Predict the 3D structure of the following.
Amino acid sequence: MGLQENIREKGVLGAVAAQADDVFTRLTAGIDVGEFRRMMQGEPPGRPNPRLKPHSEGFLLHIKPTYYHESVTRFTHTYRLGLLSTYLFIVETITGILLMIWYAPSPERAYVDMILLLTNIPFGQFLRDMHRLGAEAMVAIVTLHMVRCYLTGSYKPPRQFTWFTGVLLLVMTLFLSFSGYLLPWDQLAFWAVTIGTSMAEAVPPAVVGETVNLLARGAPDIGANGLLRFYLLHVLFLPLLLILFFFVHYYKVVHFGISLPADEEEVGEDTANRVPADKRVYYLPDVLVDETSFLTVMTALLIVLTVFFFQAPLEHIANPQSTPLHTVAPWYFYWLQGLLKIADKFIAGVLLPGVLLVLLMAIPYLDYNPSRRGKDRKVAIVAGIVAGAVMIIWSWMGTPEYAVEGAPSVEIVQDVMPEEGSGLSREIGYKHLPLGVWRTDEEYDVHDHEFLELLHEFENSVDYYRRTDPDFNAPIGILTISQAQPSLKKLHWEITWFDAEGTPGNYEKSFWLHEDSLYWEQYGWKHLFLGQVADGWKSLSGALVGE
Amino acid sequence: MHRLYTRSPIAKIMWGILSSLVGIIVLLMVLVSENPRMEAQTINWEGRSIENGAKMYADNCVICHGPDGQGILGRGPGLNSYYFFTDTGRLRDVGWVGSLEDYVLLTISAGRPSKVESQWPEVMPTWDGKFGGPMRGDQVVDLAKFVMNWEESALAQTPEEDPFQPFEDVIKPMEFQNTAHILLSEEEQAAALEEYRARNVRSPQEIWTGEACFACHNLEERQVDLYGQNGPNFADLYERAGTRVEGMTAEEYVYESIVSPKAHVVETYENAGQMPQNFAEKLSEDEIQALVAWLLNPDREQ
């Protein structure tokens, strides 16, 4: 109908309203304003259901099912973990692309770019923290998603292949997270990735392992080429691969429907796709509102956590010449690091993870029990819990707590003033470090509580190793604080002891601390809570260890 | 039982609106705190840079420049020194036009190119990997930041405290090198220098090579080597000089061309701006006069 005709018929206002309605209908791919109002008022759809149109006409919704079984829309059935994983991937993509603006993948630029991002870019630290937190959250949420599917038996027929692609997605998520690890080009990144890629070297025969290692690093050691390769893996190859497998995975999810709670169908049956009319919850509007509000809450949570509670670490610039005392893998690879401590590189780094991965992918084909009900799956559930517990124990073994004691003197200094990170000395900071010579075998009448705490910790640490190490007798710790330069103090740690035969030993290490250096989370709004959280954590872990 | 899941779309929409508000408010909080945060981060990373530099200094530089940058006699000059940090000190003496930090950066990176005219028996080695040294670029930057951090204590020194040791690579006599403390004004320093130069007159030949005139001008008619092609040829200067500008003798013309090179530019040499503009300050009156006479002498000795 022409515009003039329209105006003649409905008047100007009416014509404008009709035009607006038309535009609205186009944008929503088939929902007009009246239908939208009825939807929002909770009225049931007419027949045939006009709310199915966006699914058939619109691109964005064509992948979504038009309705769900009422039972699977309950929050406690899926916890929306798959949705949240996907959403976190989108968050990572957006923050990642923004971060790429200020980043160049070369050893000369990468670390400097990190500092420029933190010092000169408004919201730069926010973006970086959020990207890092989102990445770690994604690993956790994808894992939890897998645990949920395991516990509800959702991998059972006909969803074996869905589970298989899910495991692939988990592996890609891990690699995506890990490949991003190297990009800041700091000590943490460099050494974690050096160890990570060195596991590839253990693949037999030697020529294959070396080739794989060479391909990943671009040279015998990680350098400019390795950084570029990890960058391309991180921003291009792995995301594209993940997107591909995401669509395979999600197609299968939609195709078979989300598995119902096990009690609602007969053992061995799958009725997810046969939803009775009275059990249908339509995507428009109910599930859409549910998912949108859930993701909005999660976004707010992510922002709050990023701003107040989380800080992406940035250690010293990568230095191939100096291996840090305790190199740590990212937490989701602690289990692997733990394994590496008790077995050799090939078994722990290649064979066992490979076998575990194959087992994980093969679960649907190994588990012949047709029932998804908890009471019929006692073996599977106990096995799952045992596997989880073993993972946690291996992970604990991966932390420096387990079996990587250096010499006592080195560990003592690492306790009070580690090479990387803060430690109590840097936490209390420049102004709480009075000049002078401070010995652990003397009492001092100092009024600075924070400094007293440091001296106390120094004494405790020395005493702990005196009690536990027979080769560490009559130890004395001496801390000399001097003014190296204006606004720069030198902390000289010296430890003397006698070994079991009475031979004296001596260890010295110096650190410098500048007045303006903030090793503690004191930027923006983080100081509001992080200090308290750290104190709480310290007292909690102290109570647990029983010190 | 209180359930996490609520079926009411209104409650969900309220949750959505509430969290949007929380998100926006928190982002606004970040917005208002961004400037102080960036400032804190900037000085934080400066500070950490200085800390890294302190370690580099302790590991590599102490043996020649001393633990507190006081220098070690016969090995390396003091850096924590008034002479080193003041504008009228070291920078002016070596004729460096950039900042002190750049000078420090250059010296650490590329070392001192020669020890011919300096009294230090040890050559300052090159440190940056680019020049064959053992350090990475970022380490050199940190080290320079650490050296620059002495500024405050160096500028607070009295002449007695200044660990300055005279440099023999400077044309100035030693007694005038560390004059920043003794003399009050730049004029007095300049006067002292002028007086010194009057006592130590360089020959025209010394000026010709010392001030690198040969790089752009040729005394011979034919081309000897790569040098001397950027400026006018001086083989027939004694013939041309008097005819160049009306009312000017050959001596006046050459004199003016030395002290203000842009005054009378020879055709096809329009890039005369390359010639240093400060010969009036670098040479004494007597030296310029001698140089003019030498240049105009058809039988000059080289």
